[in-house]
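Quick one from the shared queue. A colleague (R.T.) flagged GDSL-like Lipase/Acylhydrolase as missing a structural entry in our internal table.

Convert sequence to structure tokens.
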Amino acid sequence: MSSTPIYAGSVSTVLPILSKTAPYADIPTQGSPNWGGIDREFLQAGHNERIRQNGTIYQIRFAVVNTSVLEQFNFTIWRQNGSNFDMVATTNNLIDNISNGINLITLSSPINGVQEGDFYGYRIKASENSLYAYYNINHVAYYKDGGATSKKNYDWKGNFANNIFVIDIFMEKPNMVFIGDSIISGFPAHRSFITEATTITDIPSTIENHWGIKVNKSYQNMGYAAQTTSQINNRFNSDVISLSPEFVLIEGGVNDVINNASTQEILVNWESMVQKAHNNNITPVIMLILPYTGGSDQQLNTIMYINEQLINISKKYSPSLVVDARCYVGLSRPSGPSGNCWDIKASYTSDGLHYNSAGHERIAQAIKDSFNSTNSSTPPGITTQPSSQTVNAGQAATFSVVATGTAP
């Protein structure tokens, strides 16, 4: 990675192979120019403003209110280095590609080597404010008058405002989107980059990162802590369908059970998500509800019933996969049925519900094992069991090709 200039050109549409990777906010309705200043450089440092995917940036999109006063605009990428930051890349001055309104720019030299968790920024020179940025207490923009004075180990902290200037960032569509609750988000060590008002970050500990390393595929983490299946379903279009991944791993339901939601409601929400994926040519990967040491026998029986019904839902939508990670991370509770894997192994949890990095690694392995390893290196082609049956550790299974695509 270098910080050499990247040249650009304006275009009219987002390339069909791309999807948005940051920020979680959208470009707002434009007001009077209130942002940019005379000679400043900015770093958007809010948690849900960070980039959600590893890969290459091909296009960016942003709005300008008054180009007549704008002299310089550079787009930048920064990476955290301890408490400071290193510049990853900068564009040249984009002023010749900018007009009033929304600007979509294709980078003729794409920014390679971008990592999940990187930050975006921008350099402005103008005779007065030329941009519009909206205020929200959960957003953070650091700024330096006269611009950053170093590209390595730079201390951005100091001047800040609770505003966001949205620059949509586009990379190749992710192979898999992970959507769910705190388990997918990465709690307790990590929060996904759709979460506001936090700085808790430990990307290497997450299910997604472990999976991505195992299979060398791209992903976006769209988990949000404490959500029920209804809440996950409500954002499914914006957080999955709009990204057009090849696969979506869906997780959720334990919060519903904890909050005494009916099994009918849970299953309706689940099937709605599976159906949305299926109708949009996205292969659903159904993760059965995981062990829950803190749950009562009654709650675990309810979860077991839901899991049985999720397998039946999978059979209705081909192609689909079922991930059964229960016995990868669980052990049998004496009061439950034989081989129940209701409780989380103590070495994988601190609270009986969420997982540490070691537990996340085992779940990632279960996801990988749900795909036929014999075909994983020979795309196209994914494989599932003929009846969308589950796969437990050590269980023999026969696979057959049921859909085309690049297998994770």
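Residues 84 and 155 are 5 Å apart (CA to CA).
The radius of gyration is 23 Å.
Added to the table.
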